[in-house]
């Protein structure tokens, strides 16, 4: 009895709470043009800098924004500690103090949050009126389709005019590869790393051939990418893993390289061989050291991350810290051209569904994305104190600048533009070469507009994630005595978890999507 | 509101402890409230906090049965029955996880209480004021060390390539041990880490309880020439019984909930150890880590709560049959 | 201040002990029993076990970053470096965090102890129509919670407590467990004393403040300590509800440091700050002040103040 009445009271409180947020959502933005400038708050990810540089920059930027749009910009940070929880709870709270929200389809739950109603649907008229430059540029390239749910509405603005390659690969040392007898010191096939690693093991007693930490699946994925034509459907994850693929030869049939084919076993056997050589620490899974620093210190023969990381920091650091090391990059899928351009929604900007001034927010966004002066201020800071332009037109830092304490940290990752970007002094000298090479061979990710309804298969995906988290890390580090038996066992458990149901459900969405576009 | 609705139900209950101040049970309610307005006033702040921060959000657990979206809110989102619970069963791990979680907690409860009581009794024997103060402060330390650091320290000691323990073994001519591959070793390691972290801190309650024992009991024991063991057996331990039962009933409520941080930082993704170390929280974390999933985590929380609830009700019932004074309610 | 105040009350029970010096156990000092010696050894050994890893944390916090990230922790800081502490204390941030943490701890503990004592006494009174329902009412929140979502909406939307330290304090203000710990101590208050006071015409409040509370100093010290430690250690609510770095409590700063090591690596941003040493130094810094709370609380753990927690 007591509990019941309390439950009712509690329910009433919550209903009240939710309805107030809903009401707030319906109130139209008002008082935009009159008098006081409107405050626009943009949610970004990262640790809020405390060195005062951000505030100094915003002060300058806001002079401009006030003059042009009668608005001020402020940043709201979701810091890295437990960021997934923070980000998603922040969005669900419907906090009407936030106007612009940094999002992404591959790592910031853009589709999920759009479906759940966190983002304001953006009508074409609204975009045309308040963010005309952005509208035009995205529209000219036909990229609005990448941001629509199946209701046909636009939910966010893609960072579609900014080149970055976040495809993965190995960084290794050309000097050691040459010494290992690899022609030209350049590795061209995934298996060649066996030669390289063995040489490092025998000749560089201080170093691990590849000091790696935690539950990565790179060794398996790198092999699978280079030895199949499988293309991962990035929208569907199970725990930490991405178990659904299509193949280039049969691009509209959903399959899984964890379930089909012998390549997973080959990859696992190679991993086992590497484990026996001693490529990584025996306890790599539990190790949490900074392996990149180890690489810089000459204590690791390889490191693994994005192309972008190689260009932006590996080359510069290795040249300074390990002179003559001749850092090189092998990207996964290099041998068979099975790798992708970045999806265009790796960064995107959404307008908060409860924003009090969505129109103003779009106006501000249009300026920081398309006005060069505003763009430089927001991304780089104040010229002379935060950055300098060198004589050869590169972006550099002033004398005595220490990137660990002096960073601007504005973290605007949802509207950068190639047109305004400059080469950086720390960039790899062969950056353009690498870009050209990648651009020539990389495939476009075809399924950006595929929206998979996960409601029904979420439990299955979670269960599959549980199975994969049990087997993949151990396969990756070659810890099973009999990889074939382990893989058979894993496949059986994935079947039991409902793999076939999930695959069928995704296939249905895929068929509908392909039909609609006349692809099949 | 609370008291009004609850009176009818509880009026019929037998009068509780012998110490209860007799109340005239047929008095009209308003009169009774009026008579006890001071008492009601005294518990008002606590009631307010409970109602606002514990009871008001409770109905929100309903999202465990919905396909939650922000637009429709908690009670407007589509009802999906038990779908958010399905993944626990589909993973095929539910039994193992439940078993591991309970066994670890049983070990924590039993060993934890034994150690805490032993430590409290020993501390009580210490005469030197400074020794006592310093040692107690030192025992506090582990409680403040982040589990992340405990994980790092454990790795530093135990890993195969560079670990201190294996270095020692090799110095003495032995073969290094791959501790991070031996599933059987980890229950012991985890239990040791847990006890290391919580014993000093947890012993305070027992220590304070011993401090509260009437001196005359000790003196009577001394006059009778009781040995140290007899003093413990016949004076201290009986006095600690109510404290122990409260602690027990509270730990039972959480028997399905694990010390996630400790397990995660010690074991992480090392699947070779899961057979003996995977508990509900760690497994669920791995399953829904990349999903924007409030509903599944609430579902798991409900599963754990209901299990704990049933267990506590059972144990409380047993305790009440033995000695009503010790029961929680 | 403790023993003398309560001495008059202790004369009431018809116990032989009342006439004697209350600290009789100390008189046995001349004849140390084997068990006493064993106790010294046991406590000493356990103390060392607790101290050694902590020493490693201190040593690590004073070790140069480069060595720390490669060789791990050791017993002696070599090469010695105070860089981590210098970095932490360089800005005003850590002082602000101290301020936040102290506010949360002091205000939180005060509110918590007051409200816990109030409800605990009412439960301990054993009124059948009130105490049992209250006990159930107190226990349920221990088992069931609404989960993250409703709590988040409650704090941010209904109560509008975003960026307020009360968003960290209020949800933790009552721990059911500590209510019951206190109830069990209150129940040990001798009935004769209470009856005598009531016959003298003392009201509920007077009985509570002048008799029950003074007799309960040890348990109040215990729960105050527990609450203080809880508030001191709290970071999750701060993480969710406090977004202005100037208002971060210490533990959140520490948590951010710890996780930014992993995240920085994952996201390819480079951090050249001495993160490993800093997280150790920060651990040392966050532990310091709360350790002082223990001796403070300990002053009240004086025996003879309550007359038996047990009825058994």
UniProtKB/TrEMBL annotation, chain A:
Domain DUF3502, which positions? Answer: 452-514
Q: What is this protein called?
A: ABC transporter substrate-binding protein
PROSITE patterns xrefs: PROKAR_LIPOPROTEIN
The record's Pfam families line, in alphabetical order, gives: DUF3502
Q: Which PANTHER family match?
A: ABC TRANSPORTER SOLUTE BINDING PROTEIN-SUGAR TRANSPORT (PTHR43649:SF17), ARABINOSE-BINDING PROTEIN-RELATED (PTHR43649)
Signal peptide positions are: 1-24
Q: Which UniProt keywords apply?
A: Signal
What InterPro entries is this protein classified in? Bact_solute-bd_prot1, DUF3502
Superkingdom, taxonomy of origin: Bacteria
From TrEMBL, chain C:
Instruction: Note the Pfam families from the entry.
Output: BPD_transp_1
Q: Where are the transmembrane segments?
A: 35-58, 102-124, 136-159, 165-186, 207-229, 276-297
Annotated SUPFAM superfamilies:
MetI-like
Annotated membrane topology is: Multi-pass membrane protein
**The ABC transmembrane type-1 domain, residue ranges:** 98-288
The cellular location(s) given in this protein's UniProt record come to: Cell membrane
> Mind listing the GO biological process terms from this record?
transmembrane transport
Main location (coarse class): membrane
Q: Which InterPro entries does the record cross-reference, listed alphabetically?
A: MetI-like, MetI-like_sf
- Give the residue ranges for region: Disordered: 1-29
Any keyword Protein transport? no
Membrane is among the record's keywords: yes
Q: Where is the composition biased (Low complexity)?
A: 1-19
Entry keywords, A to Z = Cell membrane, Membrane, Transmembrane, Transmembrane helix, Transport
Record protein name field: Carbohydrate ABC transporter permease
